[in-house]
Design a protein that fits this description.
By secondary structure, the chain is α/β, with parallel strands linked by helices. The protein has six helices and 13 strands. The radius of gyration is 15 Å and the shape is globular. The structure holds glutamine.
């Protein structure tokens, strides 16, 4: 069996996720293809999808126009594993507000039962790295790279909190959805991508 994994490539951290996912497959010794996807047709053939970081408003609006947002939603509802990173997490959420401007009118997948605050740690110049821990998924030590990161303010009862930093929730899992406010593709450690591949397998 060979896994077909897609990185949603409308905007954002696409190349880094392709590289990390390929490296993770190698380390696990699992066969698979990792490619960029944009269209509903490409998405319909996937076993798993990564929604990368970038600008959630842009990604949401562009994917609404070509119908890929709807297809992603259908596939995740049907059980396809998805990993949302930063803007990708925002896109997955049911409720989003911005730290400064409040309510945002942006297209959402409305799947992950969390309330998210965009730009929760400040603006671009407030980007930072921190050592974090994800004991429940057996990644005790990981370097979290936070770039205009959101945080998760509230989680629904079916959402497992995987990691917190200074009282803010930064990684969660809900059934087939894994989501982080930090960027696992910007470190050399591919443990998070490996964990996601195992969710697909
Ligand atoms: N602040 C961005 C947004 O709200 C997310 C930043 C990121 O993905 N690194 O979409």
């Amino acid at each position: 069996m060979s896994l077909n994994i897609g990185v949603f490539a409308v905007q954002g951290d696409v190349e880094e996720n392709l590289a990390s996912t390929r490296a993770a497959l190698d380390e696990l010794g699992i066969k698979g293809t990792v490619s960029t996807v944009k269209t509903p047709d490409q998405i319909s053939k996937l076993d798993g999808i990564i929604l990368p970081g970038g600008e959630s408003t842009t990604i949401g609006q562009l994917s609404l126009v070509n119908g890929s947002l709807k297809k992603i939603k259908e596939k995740i509802e049907a059980g396809m594993p998805a990993m949302g990173i930063c803007a990708g997490l925002i896109l997955l959420a049911k409720e989003v507000k911005d730290h400064t401007v409040g309510k945002t009118e942006q297209p959402l997948l409305d799947l992950l039962d969390v309330k998210v605050e965009r730009n929760s740690f400040g603006r671009q110049r407030d980007s930072f790295e921190a050592d974090i821990s994800m004991e429940s998924i057996k990644i005790p030590k990981f370097k979290g790279v936070f770039i205009r990161a959101p945080s998760i303010l509230e989680v629904g009862k079916n959402v497992e909190v995987i990691s917190k930093l200074n009282e803010k929730t930064i990684a969660v899992k809900q059934k087939n959805i894994l989501a982080t406010v930090f960027h696992p593709e910007l470190t050399h450690d591919v443990s998070m991508h490996k964990y996601f591949i195992n969710m697909i397998k």
